[in-house]
Amino acid sequence: MLNLDLIRDRRSQIARLVLLLCAAYFALAFVAQAWKARNLNQVLVQERAKLEQQEARNRELQEQLEMLSGKEYSVYVERVAREKLGMVKPGDIPVFVVPNPQAPKRQQKVLTAGEEQTGTNRQSDIPVWRQWISVLLK
């Protein structure tokens, strides 16, 4: 009987050891999976931030596209091309106004509050069409 009790004790010890090893294995597997889940959540947060940035950029580009496809934009481009780049449409005659370097420079009086500019020879009193005629006929 002594032998039988010894065998039972050994079996019990082996069963406990196997049970302990299985518990340790499952505990390590659980920790590894929890670590992977944590890393995946961090990646998910980063990707969501990137997605928000891309969506914001997409909204900006959509607004630009809407602005560029409108009639106002074509008018704006034409105005800039004419004024800043000196471009003309086919059939237009470009006119360049060159200042006369020999003409005396006018001094402008700085007006203070309450003062009004007087006189009939102000540039703003002369209609624009007369100013053009005087420039073209000189």
TrEMBL record:
Give the source's domain of life in one word. Bacteria
Keyword list (alphabetical) reads: Coiled coil
Give one Pfam hit by family name.
DivIC
Coiled-coil residues:
37-71
Q: What is this protein called?
A: Septum formation initiator
Which species is this UniProt entry from?
A: Thermobaculum terrenum (strain ATCC BAA-798 / CCMEE 7001 / YNP1)
Taxonomic path? Bacteria, Bacillati, Chloroflexota, Chloroflexia, Candidatus Thermobaculales
